[in-house]
Each structure stands twice: as C-alpha cells, then as structure tokens.
Specification:
The N and C termini lie far apart (42 Å). This protein folds into 2 domains: 141 residues, Alpha-Beta Barrel (TIM Barrel); 31 residues, no CATH class. A 4-stranded parallel β-sheet has the order 1-2-3-4, with helices on one face. The protein has 174 residues and is of the alpha/beta class. The protein is built from 8 helices and 4 strands, in the order αβαβαβαβαααα. 41% of the residues lie in helices and 9% in strands.
Length: 174
C-alpha cells in the first residue's frame, strides 16, 4: 500500500499548492487479482480503509461485472462492491462500474446502496445510451458490438484491436 498511498499524498500536496479552484481527487482500482499470489479481497478492504482516511472525493471500483463476488480473502456472499461500500461508504462516496447494460441494470445497481454508477463499455457500444433512457427508448440500446461498428462508432484502431483481441471484455457478435 505504501506506493499508491504516497501517490495520493503527493497528488493532494500538489493540488493544495497549485490549484486555483476546487479539484476533485479520487482513486480508481480493481479490487482483486485472479492469480495467486495476488491482491485478495481482504487486502483490498485494508486498502479501502487507508484510502478512506485520505479524504478523497470518491473511490471508483472497476469491475467487469458490478455484481461479482469475492474470489478469495473473505468469507462473504455479498458482492465486492457491497463489501467496499460497507467499509468506506460513510467516509467517501463509492462509484461502481461493470456490465450495466440496461436502464433496469442501472436502477438495480443504484438500489443496491452504491451511490454512484458509472458506464464505460456501454457508452462505447452506444454513445446515445443516456439519451435513449431519457427519451424512453431503452429497447433501442445496443448491448453488443458488431464487426462493422468500428467506423460508425469512431473507435480508434488500437482500442478496436484490443476489444477484438480480448474475448469477454466486450460482448461482440460474430
């Protein structure tokens, strides 16, 4: 934890010295590593405690799936985000992300008690996602990519190649 906490301290020091107006500072992280040895959920919860003491504006928990369960390190059936929210939520706002494809998914995520929900891959697949929700056109939301979507969506070649070369990252129709 020493290095990331030192980075947070330095960022805050520089902001306090140079910022002319309020400046949000948060920390985005993935809560566990799949391999052993690697970061476990118990490691993450200790890190969340330390980050929560840093007076950050948010913690952004990056997941492939919002509802994913801990792999190892805790004996709890709740999602990783629920555990992090329980640990940090009264000290720093938590943002969750991961496979929020539909308006119902977003509503369910917000009803879980996580105060902020982010969209990432969903906005790449359908840049009009929010407008379609606001206009009552949820059924028109694209939840997959097709092989010919790169040009229409203006996705740069390196990102498109990464999407195509990483099975399971984006839902891609054959």
């Amino acid at each position: 934890m020493s290095f990331p906490l030192a980075v947070v301290d330095e960022v805050k020091r520089v902001i306090n010295k140079h910022a002319k107006q309020p400046f949000l500072v948060g920390y985005r992280f993935s809560p566990e590593e799949a391999s052993t040895p690697g970061i476990t959920m118990s490691d993450t919860l200790e890190f969340v405690d330390a980050l929560s003491d840093k007076e950050l504006d948010y913690l952004h928990v990056s997941l492939l799936n919002f509802w994913s369960k801990p792999r190892r390190g805790v004996d709890d059936s709740r999602s990783r985000l629920e555990l992090i929210q329980e640990r940090a939520g009264n000290r720093v706002p938590v943002i969750g992300v991961g496979s929020i494809h539909t308006a119902d998914d977003a509503l369910k995520a917000l009803q879980s008690g996580i105060p902020l929900v982010a969209l990432a891959r969903e906005l790449i697949m359908d840049p009009d996602w929010v407008e379609k929700i606001l206009e009552g056109r949820e059924s028109e939301i694209a939840t997959t990519l097709r092989q010919h979507d790169q040009e229409r969506l203006v996705i740069p070649d390196p990102l498109w190649q990464a999407i195509m070369d990483t099975p399971g990252w984006f839902p891609v129709e054959a």
